[in-house]
Amino acid sequence: MPVGTLGTVKSLTPDELMRAGAQIILGNTYHLYLRPGCEVIAHFDGLHKFMSWQGPILTDSGGFQIFSLAKLAKISEAGVTFQSHIDGSRHLLTPEKVIEIQTCLGSDIIMCLDQCLQHPASRAETREALEITTRWAERCKAAWQTNANGHSALFGILQGGMFKDLREASSDALVAQDFDGFAIGGLSVGEPVETMLEIAEFTLPGLPDEKPKYIMGTGTPEDLIELVALGADMFDCVLPTRNARNGQIFYAQGTLNITNARYRQDTRPLEPGCTCYTCRTYSRAYLRHLFIARELLAYRLSSLHNVHFFLNLLKQVRQAILEDKFDSFRKNFYENRTN
Question: What domains does the chain contain, in order, with CATH numbers?
Answer without folding.
Answer: 14-237 (3.20.20.105), 242-336 (no CATH)
